[in-house]
Amino acid sequence: MTRTEAASKQPRRTQEQRSTEMRIRLLDATIDCLVEYGYAGTTTPRVAELAGVTRGAQVHHFGSKTDLVVAAISHLAQRRTEAAMQEVGRIKAGPDPIATVLDFLWELHQGPLFIAAMELWVAGRTDPVLAAEMGKVEPFVNNAVLIALNRYVPDEVRRKDARDFVYTAMDAIRGILVSSFIASDPERAHRRWLRASAHLREAARVAVPGILVAD
Question: What is the 3-state secondary structure (H, E, C) of the chain?
Answer without folding.
Answer: CCHHHHHHHCCCCCHHHHHHHHHHHHHHHHHHHHHHHCCCCCCHHHHHHHHCCCHHHHHHHCCCHHHHHHHHHHHHHHHHHHHHHHHHCCCCCCCCHHHHHHHHHHHHCCCHHHHHHHHHHHHHCCCHHHHHHHHHHHHHHHHHHHHHHHHHCCCHHHHHHHHHHHHHHHHHHHHHHHHCCCCCCCCHHHHHHHHHHHHHHHHHHHHCCCCCCCC
